[in-house]
Model the fold of this input.
Amino acid sequence: MASGKDETQPFERRLRMGMIGGGRDSFIGAVHRQAATLDGSVELVAGALSSTPERSRRSAQEVYIPEQRAYGTWEEMLEHESALPPAERLDFVSILTPNYLHYPIAKAFVEAGFHVILDKPMVLNSEEANDLARAVEEAGVVLAVTYNYTGYPLVKQARHLVKTGQVGEIRKVVLEYSQGWLRTKLEDTGHKQAVWRADPSQAGIGGAIGDIGSHAEHMVSTVTGLEIEELCADLTTFLPGRLLDDDANVLLHFTNGARGILTASQICTRQENNLSIHVWGSEGGLEWYQEHPNHLRFYPADGPLQVMSRGSSYLCEAAKRATHIPAGHPEGFVEAFANIYRNATDTMRARLRGIEPTELELDFPDVYAGARGVFFIEKVVESSKSGSKWTPAQWKRG
Amino acid sequence: MASGKDETQPFERRLRMGMIGGGRDSFIGAVHRQAATLDGSVELVAGALSSTPERSRRSAQEVYIPEQRAYGTWEEMLEHESALPPAERLDFVSILTPNYLHYPIAKAFVEAGFHVILDKPMVLNSEEANDLARAVEEAGVVLAVTYNYTGYPLVKQARHLVKTGQVGEIRKVVLEYSQGWLRTKLEDTGHKQAVWRADPSQAGIGGAIGDIGSHAEHMVSTVTGLEIEELCADLTTFLPGRLLDDDANVLLHFTNGARGILTASQICTRQENNLSIHVWGSEGGLEWYQEHPNHLRFYPADGPLQVMSRGSSYLCEAAKRATHIPAGHPEGFVEAFANIYRNATDTMRARLRGIEPTELELDFPDVYAGARGVFFIEKVVESSKSGSKWTPAQWKRG
Amino acid sequence: MASGKDETQPFERRLRMGMIGGGRDSFIGAVHRQAATLDGSVELVAGALSSTPERSRRSAQEVYIPEQRAYGTWEEMLEHESALPPAERLDFVSILTPNYLHYPIAKAFVEAGFHVILDKPMVLNSEEANDLARAVEEAGVVLAVTYNYTGYPLVKQARHLVKTGQVGEIRKVVLEYSQGWLRTKLEDTGHKQAVWRADPSQAGIGGAIGDIGSHAEHMVSTVTGLEIEELCADLTTFLPGRLLDDDANVLLHFTNGARGILTASQICTRQENNLSIHVWGSEGGLEWYQEHPNHLRFYPADGPLQVMSRGSSYLCEAAKRATHIPAGHPEGFVEAFANIYRNATDTMRARLRGIEPTELELDFPDVYAGARGVFFIEKVVESSKSGSKWTPAQWKRG
Amino acid sequence: MASGKDETQPFERRLRMGMIGGGRDSFIGAVHRQAATLDGSVELVAGALSSTPERSRRSAQEVYIPEQRAYGTWEEMLEHESALPPAERLDFVSILTPNYLHYPIAKAFVEAGFHVILDKPMVLNSEEANDLARAVEEAGVVLAVTYNYTGYPLVKQARHLVKTGQVGEIRKVVLEYSQGWLRTKLEDTGHKQAVWRADPSQAGIGGAIGDIGSHAEHMVSTVTGLEIEELCADLTTFLPGRLLDDDANVLLHFTNGARGILTASQICTRQENNLSIHVWGSEGGLEWYQEHPNHLRFYPADGPLQVMSRGSSYLCEAAKRATHIPAGHPEGFVEAFANIYRNATDTMRARLRGIEPTELELDFPDVYAGARGVFFIEKVVESSKSGSKWTPAQWKRG
Done:
């Protein structure tokens, strides 16, 4: 088997992580735990994992959180952890509750000086987003948003090809994100994740556009560096009685003149998690598919299609750093997710050491990426409500 | 090698074909000749192949058209052939000139009682389309439009799965047609096919939307049977000085409530001829890719993805009839094109015998499909000019 | 649609073709007719298509062969055509009978001065092969063997990459040819093509190894230019009562020290026509799959996998000449088959003009390739009968 | 995002793991750590990670092993851990040293009553294998061999389709394992993993056949349940001066009459880790590719190819248990590796609880699988040395 160097820098101790949400029956809780601890440099030591104190403690036990740090509520966690001496206190918390709780919890921990890792969409609206961004700036903490799909090494390579001019001036972007799991009214069966996502008071104003469309927005912003100038959206709800959109189609105008099309849907029967991005520039093209994440298709204007492969020597530094094992040994969703953690926690470690994090370490979605995502959802909903009018959608720091 | 039955019914003689346009340097001329004669039941006996009499005659010689039927102009062909006794006269003509000549030539031959095969888009506008349809009705001749991509057997199978309810109620359609050959201003280099396509007086009001978007419209209409109710379009011209669109993005509302998105572009660097259709219904999904035409992906709501393969016993009758050689022996573009000819000329043979053509024989794009395509282009252009307003686009016989 | 130049040189007339075998119910008869006439420069004017005079004449009628040249037997055809004046006489005959008739028919026509196109395997044994080669040399006619799979443009490109050193010294070759159509005893159902292939007196000593293994041998010889030094074979018959092998596994030693493995089987359930070649050299690797023939995978030792695409400007001359329509418009089995005809008949045309055919025109499998294929089958059978002993298998002109 | 249930049963504490080998620069060390701890139910608490005491301690520090359990040698670890009270003592050790150390270390720990997880090939020869098997039987401990590729859920599904008769009687198996990383003499550059693999005193008698061919043997045995009766092998060393084979081609006869072909090579330029298995039976066929592990291709004799997808409801229990996150969220190498740990450690937990492990828990490669693999390598080498004689190779418990 070919060699793969573990490039993680040693640190004198593991970072101490607390988790809010992500208890039993939560798919994403297990993912965050695996992602955070994948390379062994983070330990989960505290949690307020579920919506009731009793369930929280039971969930904590199942994941071997010591009893004294198995909190009943996030408020309890905040109070107790804040009171601990720095040598014991949590380094950061990960927040994976339904969307509507992101803002109050994140703000409270940020203001108490904890670093924070947050699920997307970051908060419910731009007002919350801007307020949270201000709080982060004031507290000087690290806040990362788990737009996990940009953690894939080949996505970083795609961004690199654009940045280094190999694609030329970008003219056209096609974004597709198709799922089928809400083809029926799963929320009526009590399916936990479907239930809160279907409830505007918990999920916010976006259905498919919030849950997966926001990933697509972050993907295009990351890979191309382009800014959306205006958009024209058509949201649909196919299942009778469903309150939020389950299908979104959006035309995009970017500030450089590029055109785009984004389709995000959760009613595409038997589609699993089919996110793809296609970028066409004056000098080349790119295609990447989340379900086959270890390869990137690059079309130079002259010469054959090149299929770039994770773990190869010709990839950019950021892609190499995001690689855990050698080429041909498939990496997947968890490793990409872990890359958000790796860079965010390496940035925390730099702060703890009192040094500047490097550009490679700072390569994770921050509070501004989170704010831009929330703004995007708002503008899509606004355009759709207007009967698909072109709606200005250029994001600026609040 | 496995057996493949030639199901063509014998006919007492080959049909006599004349060709207008399609001379030297024409890619599509060779395709039509190959498609028409693939199974040996048509012979090319006359032509007016190029834009000048001299070039026409030289082109005719190259394709072994006898000198006496190597006409200098289509008018000459019409006059001489009309004067021939029925036993010698052409059975049909194929018209593959630049778009603006389709209408006058087709109408003249139709009125003279010849069957006609026409390239797409059929004519320049709905007025011409409706007039041509009336002429066809009055003359009682066969007119086929070479929307060749619906000639593929797996497209017929896709249509079959929809018709027989295996996809359920259709909710979402994604259409993509990406090419890259107009990424630069090829028309400025004298490239013949680029030149006329870039000239509105020859090509009509549609650039990419006319040249390839119209194929996508015919594809979705054929496979789904749905009707477009309204559309919201965004046409762009990327190359400075180009007069027609080279990129089209269109949102679609179908009359049954389904949503769609169509992107057609000729500036997608190194994309070759990437037409695909994705259909998502309440009970299943479908995907088909023109560049891999021998397979169809069918997603039943329960159970694994099925990859259907050309030449298989489980396919529908129309797909089987459209199959020339056994599974695993790849068929391509020419065979699909030939299937339009096969059904159109079998319909002509039925007429010549005085019998009713079967439903399988009548399975080719007719003058109404051609008219609907022209109408679609008009509506897309209208919506785009209005600033992407939703524009009613339900086609009705004129 | 992008332009595709028809590079065929005009010739004053179509070549006159006669066909022996390939009547009704013959899959390969239709393929030869399509392949021969695809670009319009050959016309089928005579035939002895079936095994009885009556069926021959009926078959001839179905493919519009004039009655006076619809012969009852090949002997009749030979006699009558030999007597015709040169301006009317056949230019060449295509022989697609069961294998055991190849030798007598081909030899007779060769000796009478006709050019010949022959299905593979060329003849039943090396004695016949050497004798036929001598007859061809003496008569000075063109003889082509339809190893059609090497007619694909990307196979020619693979050969080019090897020849130009881009693969380096070849070390390893993997050849796979899997079909499933003989998974059951199809020959017991009366299936015509299965019947004669299962009968050693008609098919010769090879079952799967003769029918498809010989294609694999020609593929590896063509692409790599290597010579087999010795082989170690294991033939199996899975279906009780079947007289010939239906599965073949062969280890190969090439004279340059390269190693190879060849598996050919007709009992691989639901495999259609899955021929692939994989070549691994010191500087690069190659992969090509017959069922996806428009692309070639090239692995340079440094840098990403390159996927070469038919119709691209970077391909070699032989690949370009073998291309009929632009990239993205899939070509398939028939076009590859037609390329054997194109080069063989262009060579005939050169001879008719009294000029030397070019290297590009001479690029078709000749009588020596046919002889090598027959020798290969003999050696595989010999090795298998010996209990898989390594058996010297270097072919030399007889 | 769709829900994925964490099916791990809670246990009162994490299992305590010690690691021998796998220090800095070891790719496989990181993999074992990630695999063991992926679901959070194992903690790494002790290690003797490198070949010198100093490097061992430095490596241990980097992976946060407490100083007092950072042993200098495995003998030191054995002595100290054996002396600890059961409540602190290691539950199991993982051994990832070069092959020649597997036997002495594993035997010592087994005899001391520790459970053991061992890299493959298990030991150097059948004598060691049989002796180790006896030791395991006597000690009553769990011994698992990390044939990690059979940990993939779709491999378990393949096995299920065979077991439940959906493939029918198996006739043919094709196994391919191609890598390119030893295309040059990497061992001469000091590359650590290449160095010991190239040294027979450390690696044993097999080069490619031992390193990766043994994985292929375990794959075919697991999926098909067939036993190899005899084999005919051809081992080659391409790089001058290399002492072990870098290319292996093997013909297989199974006891049920099935035929097989196995090719394993490490000189296939730019091939990464291309392991695949193809199984053809009387009623169906199967194909699985390690580099695309989330899908399984199943060819029923009637009906279309089915592409089965990880995480789907139609999969067997063992496949479901081996699934960590929902369909469409790609899993890879680490998850498959973790599945070996999951089942082996669940079996240990059952033993700790004094209950019988279930069949699902016992689903991991045991000492007999390890012994069979060692025997296979011996027989391949024996056949190759004999000039590719058919060599009896049916394994029986020693």
